[in-house]
Amino acid sequence: MKKMTRFSLIVVVLLVTSIIAAGTVWGYSALRKVDATANDNIKIYYNGELQAFTDTDGSKISPVIINGRTYLPLWAISELVGVDIEWDGNTQSIYLTSNAENPANTGTPKPQTSPTPNTNTSKPSNTTNKNKGTIDDPVKFGDTYYWSAREEYIDNYASADYSFTVLDVQPVTLDYIESLGFSLNSNASNFDYAMVTVKVTVSNAKVEYGEEFMNLPFYRRIWGTETPTGQYVIGGTDFGFEGSLSDKAEEAVLDSKGFIKMIKAGEVCEFSYTGKAIIPLTKNAENYLVVEKDASLDYEDSFLYFRLK
């Protein structure tokens, strides 16, 4: 692991400051107001190269002055100096990891690219994905994938930041599936089956109109499985048995009386859940778990692919 440079240490300070300022649902006692001034004239150079920071919508990001000190968003600096960032909204914890593949501190400036404005495919700004999540570059087993989405939900719109991790995969038999109370059709023996355990986090979750049950607009549906060669099986059972993914998603948003919480327009919520699903597998082939990422995208772009081994 690389030693943290003085510049990297500044990132940590920026990180803590930004989280205190940006806290929402959890930990109100940690919030405090500050007077800040954006200064468009301040220039940032890295390894002698002038840097231009832009947000995910393409707008310019300017340094902010607070009590005589200069601040920038953590994600902008972290990408320059080679630090991967993970944010756990449930525990208000930030995890920093040195990224050996990043060209930081090598004397070679990192190229600047302009983000695509107004898309739903960008990941939350304080995270780093190691894979694209496509069928050609699936998420590695055990890795966490982060993204943001704004989708139509019935007659409403829901937006949130998400993360998804495959924690465990265990083969299961048809007898075991029947023991859970499920009926199997005549084609069931044409496939293998596995029980997957996954963790989902939902943060910065909002609806735009009225109110909705908190779990439903943000539930990530398992589409099925697909092989690297394009063979696929649509389906998966994520309900109806102890520890199922849908049950755990509901449990995560129950109030003290056991009722599902509601989210109203203008409110923000965060929750996470870990649950199980039974998935069909193409026999004698490597299979990827396919999860619905963003229903607002074109069909082929709306899914994420996760390795199962």
How would you describe the overall organization of this protein?
This protein has helices at 6-22, 74-81, 174-179, 245-251, and strands spanning 36-38, 44-46, 49-51, 64-66, 69-71, 83-88, 93-98, 144-153, 156-172, 192-207, 211-213, 222-226, 232-234, 262-264, 269-281, 288-292, 303-307. The protein is mainly β and 309 residues long. It folds into 2 domains: 6-98, no CATH class; 144-307, no CATH class. Strands 8-9-10-15 form a 4-stranded antiparallel beta sheet. The chain has a 4-stranded antiparallel beta sheet with strand order 13-12-16-17, with no helix packed on it. A 3-stranded antiparallel beta sheet has the order 1-4-5, with no helix packed on it. A hairpin with a 2-residue loop joins strand 2 and strand 3. Helix 1 (6-22) packs antiparallel against helix 2. Residues 1-31 and 100-122 have low confidence and may be disordered.
Compile the SSE list and pairings:
Layout: H1 6-22, E1 36-38, E2 44-46, E3 49-51, E4 64-66, E5 69-71, H2 74-81, E6 83-88, E7 93-98, E8 144-153, E9 156-172, H3 174-179, E10 192-207, E11 211-213, E12 222-226, E13 232-234, H4 245-251, E14 262-264, E15 269-281, E16 288-292, E17 303-307
Antiparallel strand pairs: 1-4, 2-3, 4-5, 6-7, 8-9, 9-10, 10-15, 11-14, 12-13, 12-16, 16-17
Helix pairs in contact: 1-2
Brief overview, please?
With 309 residues, this protein is mostly beta strands. It has helices at residues 6-22, 74-81, 174-179, 245-251; strands spanning 36-38, 44-46, 49-51, 64-66, 69-71, 83-88, 93-98, 144-153, 156-172, 192-207, 211-213, 222-226, 232-234, 262-264, 269-281, 288-292, 303-307. It is built from four helices and 17 strands.
